[in-house]
Amino acid sequence: MHVLSKPGRLFEKLQRIDKAYRKFFQQELQDWNFTPNEIVVLVFLHNNASDMDTATDIARCRGLSKGLVARSVDSLCQKGYLETVRDSSDRRIVHLHLTPFSEPLRRLIEEKQEIVRSRIRNEIDPEALRITSDTLDQLLNNTEQLLKEDLKSC
Q1: What is the Cα–Cα distance from 36 to 27, expressed in whole angstroms?
Q2: For 42, 85, 110, 132, which has the most beta carbons within 10 A of its beta carbon?
Q3: Residue 54 above 90 pLDDT?
Q4: Among residues 21, 11, 66, 12, which one has the least CA distance to residue 47?
Q5: If DSSP codes are grouped into helix, strand and coil, which group holds residue 96?
Q6: d(CA 113, CA 107)
Q7: pLDDT of residue 4
Q8: CA-CA distance, 117 to 107, in Å (whole number)?
Q9: Rounded to 5 degrees, what angle do the CA atoms 44, 48, 49 make?
Q10: Which of 3, 43, 1 is nearest to 135 (CA)?
Q11: Would you say 18 and 10 are in contact if contact means Cβ atoms under 8 Å apart?
C-alpha cells in the first residue's frame, strides 16, 4: 500500500525522521548541558536566521508550547547564547538572534548538520531528493490550505 493512501503513515514517518534528528543533536551537544528544548531553539535559529526568528515561529514550526519556548529562550539569553531585538515596525514582535558568544556552537551545529546531510542522503539519487523536497513542499502547502479552508467553515 502506498504511503499516501493513509496520510497518517506519512506523518508518522516524518515524525520519526524529526525524532531521530533531535536525538542526534541531543547526543552531539550533550557536553554543552542544554535541555532538549534549548537545542531545538538553537538549531532552529541557526537554520532559519532572519526568515523565522521569533518564539512564535519556533513554537508553530516545531510544535512546542509557547511557554516551553519562552523558558528555553530566557535560559539561553541568560547563558549568553541569544539576544532579543524588538521589531522596529511592530514593538510587540521580538526577534531572536544568536550572539557572537554562540559562534563556536554555530560552527559545531553546522559541522554536525553536514554529517546528518551526508548520512541521510547516502545512496539516494540527487534528482530523487529534489523531487521529494518539491513534493513535501506541495504537501505542506496543500495541508496548510486545508487548515485555512477548515477554519473558514467554522
Answers
A1: 10
A2: 42
A3: yes
A4: 21
A5: strand
A6: 10
A7: 62
A8: 15
A9: 110
A10: 3
A11: no
User: What band does 154 get if pLDDT is binned at 50, 70 and 90?
Assistant: very low
**Which three cell numbers mark 122?**
547516502
pTM, two decimal places: 0.84
The DSSP symbol for 122 reads: T
pLDDT per position as a tens digit, 63-115? 899 999 999 999 999 999 999 999 999 989 999 999 999 999 999 999 999 99
CA distance 22 to 109: 12
Helix ranges (H only) for the chain are 7-28, 36-48, 55-62, 66-79, 103-120, 126-152
Q: Following CA atoms 34, 37, 41, 43 in sequence, which dihedral angle do they give, to the nearest 10 degrees?
A: 70
- Give Rg (Cα) of the chain: 18
Locate 45 and state its grid cell. Answer: 535559529
Question: What is the identity of the amino acid at 63?
Answer: G
3-state class (DSSP) for residue 53: coil
Burial per residue of 45-73, b for 16 or more beta-carbon CB atoms within 10 angstroms, e otherwise? bbeeeeebbbbebbbeebebeeebbeebb
pLDDT at residue 58 above 90?
Answer: yes
